[in-house]
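Why this split exists: single-chain examples teach little about how molecules sit against one another. For that reason, every record in the complexes split bundles all components of an assembly together and asks for one structure covering all of them. Below is a record exactly as it appears in the raw files.
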Amino acid sequence: MSRIRIAGVALVAALAVPSVASAGQYPPPADPGAPQKPPKGPFHTLQVCKKDCKYKTIQAAVNKAKAGDTVKVKSGVYHEQVKISGASKRYLKLVGNPGSPSKVVIDSSRGKAAARQNGVWVTDADQVTVNGFTARHYNGNGFFVLNANGYTLKNLNATLGGVYGIYAFNSVGGTMSDSQASYNNDAGFYIGQTPPQTTPKRSTVTRVKSFGNVLGFSGTNMRYVTITKSQWFNNGTGLVPNALDSEKYAPDEDNVITDNDIFWNNFNYYAGAPFKRKRTSVGSVAYPVGVGLIIFGGRRNVVSNNRIYGNYLAGVGILKQIVLKQADAADPVGNQVHDNQFGLGGADLNGRELVYDGSGSDNCFGPNAGVTTTLPADGSTFAACPFQGANAFNGAAQTEAIGWAGDTTHEKFWIKHPHAPKKGYTPLEHYKK
Amino acid sequence: MPPESETGLPRRSFFAVGAGALLCSIGGEQVLLSKPGDAAKADAAARRIAAPRARAAATKPPPGADPVDQLKFPTPQPQPGGVRREFWIQARDALWDIVPTRPRRDQWHGRAVAGPSVYRAFVYQQMTVGFAAPLGPPRIPGPTLYAEVGDTLVVHFRNGLSERTGQALTMHPHGVKYNPDYDGVYLGDFTRAGGFIAPGDEFTYTWEATPDAVGVWPYHDHGPNHTLNTFRGLFGAVIVREKGAKAPDMEAVLFFHSLAPPVTGLERQFQCINGRAFAGNTPTLRAKAGQDVAIHVMGMDSNFHDFHIHGHRWKDPNGTFVDTPAVGPNETLTARFVEDNPGRWLYHCHVFTHQDGGMAGWYLVEP
């Protein structure tokens, strides 16, 4: 979730709860409960196509499908919202064209607002697979899973959306892979509000690309997520594991971000964007533009073995979630940032490699390669890994970093360096039609 | 011997247990594994076990509960100067070749070994942080976990078996200190958090390297189907040293164990070291004259073994020189000596049926 509110009293008390991200009316999150039992079959395949198929709409086939069935959708553009709801649809496989997701499109640009909210929406159905689709022009989310024990979202493309691209909320375990999200008005990928578990099921995000979004990845109160082998670039901010009161189970905990490329997250969408940028509610601002990754409150997150470069404000930051009402969850605790390569060997520097206000405890940094500039500049907050105990708080660093969020130009505090050319990629700072 | 009524086994089957078969108690069922294919019966029994009642939140205590079952335990932290040593370990199944040389060969006797020799093992596989990728191929034993006194071993364990066909597993260490949550043992209704990790689930164990944990210890599965799954390959070693202690120049961990037809589904029984049988397949150890050598041997089946290295002798814990000491199930012996005898040497279990069944390997010493 991208919105954080300026309280307007003192700059240091600037970051606060989000505005409502206009995500539409959904059922309230419920405990996903015990996993639904695998269906026994026999299983059937239902064909969907625009002509000469029994089913002309995806929803008609989904409505007819039983648990564990496959709904196979042939090439075409489908103007509908697909809802897969309830235990009777568990283990459903919704398959478009895994090799060419662009050929099977769910386009939400037509119809009444209620039907344009999501491309595919899975709710209270476990272990559903959605494979091989493009969703575009949705007001809410491209692919959305709610209240599920397990899901598989792969070979998807979510683009030009009102809120999130590929999104799982209040769910336990799942996979997002081999997919792309671009030009979404909030996060390209989002896993949020993971229920705490004694013997957790991990969620995995792997081999995905996220670009041109307000946020590449948001993780509000997310848990047990590994994000790996993916590219996060040309977003306003790359990745944001964060704690918020607006969702249950703060803070974010026990996530691992490893072996990713996090670069060029300097997309100033305020100056223009291909998506319809929703008006910021009064007193609210977004995360600052130009950050590779920021942990805004959170416990035991590991950021390691990533390549982080060309982010004009900062490569990696850790800050206290200073206005979280749940005060005991506000401090970052036990987060580790190590074995990352910053600045592409000096060829594509970040504005600052590391930013940390020294709040909380047990947070540690390093070894990391290529760290040249930090906030605070004297590096006093960056305890080497492993580290235990209270970190060295630096109030001036916190004030300065939080002040970035109040910058109405969104570029004032950038420290720009030239980018190294990257074949097939073009830096996006200001969108041009 | 318990009466038939306790085991539910006919007398003839019960005697068969003594002939290399396994009698497994799995969640209140007793399953006899006496021939290839029988492991499926134990797996089915293991899958029938629901998550233990004591684990369910806010449920009433199970019958027979004691106040100690309601105790809460803090997660231990390293001592001053100690560190958290984190490991990411996934249990999974993998095809494992007991005799991987081709053609299959016993180099000691210079003879062919009749196949087949591949079975579906269960292994502890070390992963990168967040289980993002394997840190090497599956192997038996699992990774050796090193720590120094004052450290905590923080083991992120994932049961990577299929959620549809798998069964609960755990990691249970010897030697190190842990509270009941981190014991990693299935105890029926009294099972604590770490004693039943269902397929697809994770659990983070925290174990303490206390001063009395110095040594070499096994870890293994101790879930509902522990005997079968340990025999399948779910075991490894923990090595705890004094703080700042120098490691030996050459250090090896050898598990002596058997892989029997009821476990592997193969027709013949293999006598193994680290999941392999017959010299040339088992670990070939290498050292140089003058090196400080430590070879740790653990038993990981229901037999006693005698560890013998040709051309060498060392002191046992009592100070007596030995060259063929015995080691029992989950016990550790260490042969530690300064190498002084170059050449090709055989090491093996000196229980004759074991050495002839493959429990032997090479020790090559350079001048």
